Amino acid sequence: MEKLKPVELFLGRMQPLHNGHKKIIDSMKNPIVVIVKGKKSGADAERNPLDEEYQKKLIEMIFPGLEVSISPNGFLPGILGYFRKQGKEVTKIYAGADRIAGYQDAINRANEKMPEDQRYRVTFQETERVTSATTVRNAIKSGDKDTFKKLVPSAIWGEWDTLRKKLGVMKEGILKFGQWMEDAAVTTTVAIKDAQKDIPLGPMVRRKRKRGA
């Protein structure tokens, strides 16, 4: 087998990427990030509101030049095979404790069907859970910008309004504000008219002209 470039892999949904993800990527050597867009998970708009191109854009804003790929599923042997064809050998995979056993089992089953010299030999690095994308999304939905800034890298703070639109809250807020303004204008007009009706208008008082004037 020809000599391949060793790389390290981190894969996930990244909805959106947060400080926990950044900490992992910062620690990697020759990192590659894979955004997983499974058919089943992708249909869950609540947990996966961001499209892959926007996710990729956010990651590249934080890590300019980082290799980011998009996979239609999380089948690890297929992902490893894809990068091997690109001349890269994945030597380490960063994953949460709940994922490692499943990933290792998938690799073992694939290796059983491969010649000894072509088998995947990877190690796993268990990642620390700093925060979750769900917590970030909840902060965005609730309009808690301070919490949002604490949870995500500063490079994407400027995406606040776009993220709120992507999560479906900015549009609703604008409509509500517009309706409020419309209602307020009507209410104010009615109040002025009512006030004018209630003002007691006394008889007109004519000023007496002074003699000789």
Compile the SSE list and pairings.
Elements: E1 5-12, H1 19-26, E2 31-36, H2 39-42, H3 52-62, E3 67-71, H4 76-85, E4 88-95, H5 97-111, E5 123-126, H6 133-142, H7 145-151, H8 160-166, H9 170-198
Parallel strand pairs: 1-2, 1-4, 2-3, 4-5
Can you characterise this structure?
- The chain is an alpha/beta fold.
- The protein has a single domain, classed as Rossmann fold (3-Layer(aba) Sandwich).
- It is built from nine helices and five strands; from the N terminus they run βαβααβαβαβαααα.
- The protein has helices spanning 19-26, 39-42, 52-62, 76-85, 97-111, 133-142, 145-151, 160-166, 170-198, and strands at residues 5-12, 31-36, 67-71, 88-95, 123-126.
- A five-stranded parallel beta sheet has the order 3-2-1-4-5, sandwiched between helices.
- α1 links the parallel β1 and β2 (31-36).
- α6 (133-142) runs antiparallel to α7 (145-151).
- The radius of gyration is 30 Å and the shape is elongated.
Reading off the top of the CATH hierarchy, the class is best stated as: Alpha Beta
Shape type? elongated
Largest sheet: 5 strands, parallel
> What's the helix-strand series?
EHEHHEHEHEHHHH
Question: How would you write the strand order of the largest sheet?
Answer: 3-2-1-4-5
The CATH architecture would be: 3-Layer(aba) Sandwich
The amount of helix comes to: 40-55%
Mean pLDDT value = 84
> Termini separation (Å)?
120 Å
If you compute it from the alpha carbons, what radius of gyration comes out, rounded to the nearest whole angstrom? Answer: 30 Å
Number of domains: 1
Structural class computed from helices and strand pairing? alpha/beta
CATH 4th-level superfamily: HUPs
Number of strands: 5
